[in-house]
């Protein structure tokens, strides 16, 4: 089992996760997340997770008709404004047809990369029982958390205070 890094980002993230409400167990397993590719939802492109290597990667699962997913998308869009390219939310559609997932993205009015979940991603991150669910990966690709439910922008900015330009709240 990898040793938890004691940097301030790790400590803040651990505090966020341990004190932050609805949370699934932490997963401390090394993953091959950067080898994965997802079918893009905004266009007929491929979302290559390798393009986000070296950043905190937040994979946010959403599905059609999920109002909390919409809120999470907007919170992550604002988080990008606060933290720049060091933190990368990626929206991952699940449990719906592509056209219904695209409609959810249009309704949320966010400009974040989005792809469709596939078997390879679910093998790395596990099944998604409820949405929104967010998988948090450290810049080295290690999965450090699995969050179920909505988490506000403020909680994430506080967790990443040493790399974000605003906060902590």
Explain what this protein looks like in three dimensions.
The chain has 169 residues and is an alpha/beta fold. It has helices at 8-19, 67-83, 98-108, 119-125, 153-159, and strands at 37-40, 46-48, 56-62, 87-93, 114-116, 133-137, 143-148. A seven-stranded mixed β-sheet has the order 2-1-5-4-3-6-7. Helix 1 (8-19) runs antiparallel to helix 5, helix 2 packs across helix 3 (98-108) and helix 2 runs parallel beside helix 5 (153-159).
Give the key terms:
169 residues; alpha/beta; seven-stranded mixed sheet; 5 helices; 7 strands; 32% helix; globular
Brief overview, please?
The protein has five helices and seven strands. With 169 residues, it is an alpha/beta fold.
């Amino acid at each position: 089992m990898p040793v938890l890094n004691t940097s301030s980002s790790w400590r803040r993230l651990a505090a966020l996760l341990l004190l932050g409400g609805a949370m699934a167990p932490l997963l401390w397993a090394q993953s091959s997340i950067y080898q994965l590719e997802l079918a893009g939802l905004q266009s007929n492109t491929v979302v290559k997770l390798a393009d986000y290597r070296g950043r905190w990667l937040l994979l946010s699962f959403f599905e059609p008709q999920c109002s909390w997913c919409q809120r999470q998308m907007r919170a992550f869009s604002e988080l990008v404004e606060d933290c720049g390219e060091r933190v990368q939310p990626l929206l991952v559609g699940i449990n719906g047809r592509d056209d219904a997932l695209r409609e959810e993205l249009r309704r949320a009015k966010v400009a974040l990369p989005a792809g469709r979940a596939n078997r390879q991603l679910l093998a790395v991150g596990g099944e998604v029982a409820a949405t929104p669910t967010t998988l948090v990966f450290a810049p080295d690709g290690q999965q450090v958390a699995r969050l179920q439910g909505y988490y506000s922008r403020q909680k994430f900015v506080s967790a990443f205070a040493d790399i974000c330009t605003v906060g902590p709240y």
